[in-house]
Amino acid sequence: MKKIHIGLLGLGQIGGGLYEILHAKKALFARQLGVSLEIRRIAEKFPNRKRKVRPPKSLMTKDAFSVVRDPSIDVIVELIGGTRVARELIKEALRNGKHVVTANKALLAEYGDEIFELAHRKRRWLCFEASVGGGIPCIKALREGLIANRIDSIHAIINGTTNYILTQMTTRGTGFAAALAEAQHHGYAEADPTLDIQGIDAAHKLAILARLAFGGKVRFKDIHCEGITQISSEDIAFAKEFGYTIKLLAIAKKTKDGMEARVQPTLLPNSHILASVNGSFNAILMRGDETGDVLFYGRGAGPHPTASAIIADLVDIAKAGVAGPAEDRFLMRALGKTIPVKSIASILSRYYLRFHVIDQPRVLAGISKILGNHGISISDVIQRERSAGRAVPLILLTHDAHEKDLRAAIREIDRLPYVRSRSQVIRIEEA
Ligand SMILES: NC(=O)c1ccc[n+]([C@@H]2O[C@H](COP(=O)([O-])OP(=O)(O)OC[C@H]3O[C@@H](n4cnc5c(N)ncnc54)[C@H](OP(=O)(O)O)[C@@H]3O)[C@@H](O)[C@H]2O)c1
């Protein structure tokens, strides 16, 4: 029987979920997988705090560094989160010859290079399936199932909080603030939801996925990131009229002149497979040169789905043999040259534009003229009924245009005397 001795850092939501599953299914894993997964020690800031799971007191310690240095431990599972102490603990674990499993996307997105390099140098496994898409085995798919492919694009809904909020806004007409409050009430959003609603959490995950998919370093700061705080019920309703759904998408794709990588609210045609991914669910659509589109769908967060991914990593490490050196060619691929990311100004896209304009003659002609001067052509228009001198919405969809031209045109339009508030710009993604 293959045995693996685990040091668990953090007994919060995910650590607790992991403990529960390992406790409940220990015999099953031993029987079916031939692996005995044993938690030897648990580090937690407040070991005596009342919580759902109650490990024996003898396993608990406050001192996480003593766990990562413990010679009886084979694998450290880091589940404390954050980028400061976790970074030091993981590096110390690797230096002490431990394999590491982590769900910490923020850490890997921002400090992946140094951690990947150290794991490679020390010949230790560094596994992080749970860091992207919770219970969805998308990293394993890149590592194994899609290995014959060159990945050309990723389009992903990888933040359950924002997908829940946008779904509520779309299906119920709820406003952003009310939908966020509802997400918090149901436990889909943190008390401080900044990382989620600003798109930063999705960008962390995209940085990890893109480097694995495209084989090279991707600098987190190069990923253009927009959240959903500026999306109104009005935008969602107008998008619907045109046959589109608004989703927060993480996009990485190869183009003739470089890689595009961004997180953005996006108008997707209702017929697009990601348009029907609702609630707190995640979905990752990858296009391989041999497979074509492959879709992964499931729970992107939560204690049990996330712990499921962590256990898969632990089983992989146990099967490879904890004693031997790790020769992780997949991780080495992700340590290749830095992949330059195209600036957002240089991308080509279709756009949804919403203006609030005073209802008077020649407004549409004035706006179209400015767009035309910048080489932008209109594909569709909704102009609301007349409302005698009051501000009314004017919605335009454009054909493909360069972002820098579009932004220059919008700056000009926003200065027009009959334009009443800053114009809304949302990119459209067709395929
Ligand atoms: N929640 C999800 O659905 C989800 C999904 C995918 C990935 N993740 C990732 O999984 C990781 C854990 O998330 P979580 O939701 O389980 O967080 P959490 O509930 O806050 O759990 C973290 C636990 O670690 C403890 N801790 C913090 N610093 C410590 C230290 N220096 N030594 C020992 N214990 C320490 C915390 O104690 P205090 O509470 O006292 O600070 C807390 O109990 C994060 O990296 C997160 O991004 C989470």
Structural class: alpha/beta
Overall form: elongated
Determine the N-to-C terminus distance. 48 Å
What is the second-level CATH architecture of the largest domain?
3-Layer(aba) Sandwich
> How many helical stretches?
14
**Fold-level CATH name of the largest domain:** Rossmann fold
Small-molecule components bound: NADP nicotinamide-adenine-dinucleotide phosphate
Largest sheet: 11 strands, mixed
Q: In percent, how much strand structure appears in the residues?
A: 25-35%
Mean pLDDT reading? 95
**CATH homologous superfamily title of the largest domain:** NAD(P)-binding Rossmann-like Domain
Integer count of domains: 3
Segments where pLDDT lies below 50 for 5+ residues?
Answer: none
Fraction of residues in helix = 25-40%
CATH class of the largest domain: Alpha Beta
**Cα-atom Rg, whole angstroms?**
24 Å
Counting DSSP E segments of at least 2 residues, the number of strands comes to 17
Describe this structure in words.
The structure is a single chain. Strands 7, 8, 9, 10, 11, 12, 13, 14, 15, 16 and 17 form an 11-stranded mixed sheet that branches. Strand 5, helix 4 (105-121) and strand 6 (126-127) form a beta-alpha-beta unit. Helix content is 37%, strand content 26%. The protein has helices spanning 13-33, 64-68, 85-95, 105-121, 138-145, 160-172, 176-185, 194-197, 200-214, 233-241, 303-320, 329-333, 363-373, 403-414; strands at residues 2-9, 35-43, 60-61, 75-78, 99-102, 126-127, 151-157, 224-225, 244-255, 258-269, 281-288, 292-299, 348-358, 378-383, 391-398, 401-402, 424-428. It starts with a strand and ends with a strand. The chain has 3 domains: 2-134 and 303-333, Rossmann fold (3-Layer(aba) Sandwich), CATH 3.40.50; 139-299, Dihydrodipicolinate Reductase, domain 2, CATH 3.30.360.10; 344-428, 2-Layer Sandwich (Alpha-Beta Plaits), CATH 3.30.70. The protein is elongated, with a radius of gyration of 24 Å. The mean pLDDT is 95. It contains 14 helices and 17 strands. The longest helix is centred in the first third of the chain and has 21 residues, at 13-33. It has 431 residues and is an alpha/beta fold. NADP nicotinamide-adenine-dinucleotide phosphate is lined by residues 9-15, 43-46, 64, 79-81, 85, 103-105, 130, 134, 301-302, 306.
